[in-house]
Amino acid sequence: MTDTTIRTYNGEVSEAEAETEEVESETTCPECGGRLVTDTEHGETVCTDCGLVVEEDSIDRGPEWRAFDSAERDRKSRVGAPTTTMMHDKGLSTNIGWQDKDAYGKALSSRQRAKMQRLRTWNERFRTRDSKERNLKQALGEIDRMASALGLPENVRETASVIYRRALNEDLLPGRSIEGVATAALYAAARQAGTPRSLDEVTMVSRIDKMELTRTYRYIIRQLNLEIKPADPESYVPRFASDLDLSDEVERRARELLRNARDTGLLSGKSPVGLAAAAIYAAALLSNEKVTQSQVSEVANISEVTIRNRYKELLEASEVTAAL
């Protein structure tokens, strides 16, 4: 028997069991075994069954003020915004407001305005003291601009910022442009989050060409060991259906066509964007909703020839699945 073993009248209890019992004793009443609750108003821990006060005078870690709505809470709060990776300094630095007014709302004199403008200039210089911070500031601004143009959510921007920071810390930028690595990070983040955008869509809002994007993207995911699955055609369906103002029935049929194509092995080696666009077109035809190949082509940014070829293959795969 080791030193960490606890002996009882029934036998021996292991260390893990002892820890489990200790945790359970912290949440149950020592007298009756009832459930313990915390009374924040009185600072006490009380049993709900027998009323035993197990702990008193606990520390209140909340604010000393009260608020009855979100506006009042924001007005009384004395803390800053949470840290974020989307800013080069993680949002911890201060900003000097652009309004030339004092604390009472009165306009500043010309001498004070000139002084505040100098302070803003020096504050901006101190925020980016070295080349690494200037690089990061430019790249994160580029990521935010492209993400806004592509309609990507905040979690994708956060992930792209983390990927770019990793690339910068591991010294992957020499020989590559800031815009190229930032665009590749955003493209990878969108695919990781399950809200992918096609290469053509990303290239349209980027300052680099498609070839540089694909080359930089492959280099980044290889060097950072990013695990990114191939894009699922179904992830494009809701966006295309929304842009074309199609019904939920069309979206459901498009997903069904893609699942049938997956079962027959049709998805391998084909563009997910083209398959999603073809599925939308075929589903609209099956649902008797008006949509042309040119409209789908414009929304998906692919050729009408691709849509014609793929939608026939999807219908054939659906017939094969139905026959099986």
From TrEMBL:
Annotated region described as Disordered, given as residue ranges: 1-24, 70-93
Example of a GO MF term: zinc ion binding
The UniProt record lists the keyword Acetylation: no
Keywords, comma-separated and alphabetical: Metal-binding, Repeat, Transcription, Transcription regulation, Zinc, Zinc-finger
Polar residues compositional bias, start-end: 82-93
Start and end residues of each TFIIB-type domain: 24-55
Ranges of Acidic residues composition bias in the record: 14-24
Similarity comment text for this entry: Belongs to the TFIIB family.
Keyword Transcription regulation attributed: yes
Protein name stated in the entry: Transcription initiation factor IIB
Sequence repeats: 141-224, 235-316
Lineage, highest ranks first: Archaea, Methanobacteriati, Methanobacteriota, Stenosarchaea group, Halobacteria
Residues that bind Zn(2+): C29, C32, C47, C50
Domain of life, source organism: Archaea
InterPro entries: Cyclin-like_dom, Cyclin-like_sf, TFIIB, TFIIB_arc, TFIIB_CS, TFIIB_cyclin, Znf_TFIIB
BP term (GO), one: DNA-templated transcription initiation
Functional summary from the UniProt entry: Stabilizes TBP binding to an archaeal box-A promoter. Also responsible for recruiting RNA polymerase II to the pre-initiation complex (DNA-TBP-TFIIB).
Gene: tfb
Membrane-crossing residue ranges in chain numbering: none
Coiled-coil intervals: none
